[in-house]
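Just wondering, can you check both lines?
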Amino acid sequence: MKDQNCGYCMRGELLDKFGIFICDLSVSSLILFKEQSHPGRCIVAYKDHVSEIVNISEEDRNAFFADVTRAAKAIHAAFHPDKVNYGAYGDTGCHLHMHLVPKYKDQYEWGGVFEMNPGKVLLTDEEYAEMIEKIKKEL
């Protein structure tokens, strides 16, 4: 099931506003978050437009968390963060997804309050492509 107003469902221009599709995983999509104050930040979005983790089968829930784990391992291998934080939000979009936010002890927000989209670091198309290749190499 898809929602015509959802970037995770429809991709294209709606997704382009905040992210870049990397690849499909077993039951989800991996997306590079365009705002890169936290180098390597990605989103794992479930394949269908459901709001809550309780709205999917146990099998899909396990597969979703396996996808999150696979993405996190790739982020660790590609960018070597000190910690990856995981956030599941969706008050407005209502599409099950998880933010994977690499944190670095000597960089932005270490030990501080998380800003969802600080708008401080946007990259060139070439820099995004390089990040995506690093992640894909580690998947």
Observations:
- The chain has a mean pLDDT of 94.
- The chain has one domain: 7-106+125-138.
- The chain is about 30% helix and 20% strand.
